[in-house]
Design a protein that fits this description.
This protein has 171 residues and is α/β, with parallel strands linked by helices. 33% of the residues lie in helices and 20% in strands. The chain is built from six helices and seven strands. Strands 1-2-4-3-5-6-7 form a seven-stranded mixed β-sheet. It is elongated and about 65 Å long. The two termini are 44 Å apart.
Length: 171
């Protein structure tokens, strides 16, 4: 593991002598993905910048002049500009570390001969749990009641609300 600066971003490099260069725009959880990539002889460069959302210029700086693939995030705008930069660097693949791909212009990837992937199914249960929590919070007026309590205004009669047991919910 080697830490270097690439432009304004700090990057941690794994398997520095790898044949294929893969850029990861944010640190990812777990280690299995990294084991797979380094096992396939990939040099993996993980951006460790504290910037919450990278600008296209930051990502283009990470891609540089030679890059085989990128694993990006849903906060990034993957369109003609970034796919063009990846193609110019010899890239062949982009994977969106997200369930959806509304931040990815798939036709732009196709135009630049970049294969596009995502990670469907990874948040199915989590999404259902959040939907259930939001439904119950809305039915019981949790946020509103919290604000009233913190302001010292809570009255039981104001927060008589929908009872949630015996109800059937569809998500």
């Amino acid at each position: 593991m080697v830490n270097v600066l690439r432009g304004d971003a700090e990057v941690t490099t794994y398997n520095p002598d790898g044949k294929y260069r893969v850029v990861v725009t944010k640190e990812l959880p777990g280690e299995r993905w990294l084991q797979v990539l380094t096992g396939l002889d990939c040099r993996v460069e993980v951006c460790t910048s504290e910037k919450v959302i990278l600008e296209n210029a930051d990502i283009k700086g990470l891609i540089g002049t030679k890059c085989d693939g990128v694993i990006g995030q849903l906060t990034e705008d993957w369109g003609d500009e970034l796919f063009g930069a990846l193609a110019a660097a010899g890239g062949k693949a982009y994977s969106n570390y997200a369930v959806g791909y509304n931040n990815v212009d798939v036709p732009a990837g196709t135009k630049h001969n970049i294969s596009v992937g995502n990670t469907p199914g990874v948040l199915t249960e989590t999404t259902a749990e959040i939907a259930a929590a939001l439904t119950l919070s809305a039915a019981r007026r949790v946020v509103e009641a919290d604000s009233f309590m913190r302001a010292g205004k809570y009255e039981v009669r104001i927060f008589s609300c929908q009872r949630t047991h015996y109800l059937i919910y569809g998500i």
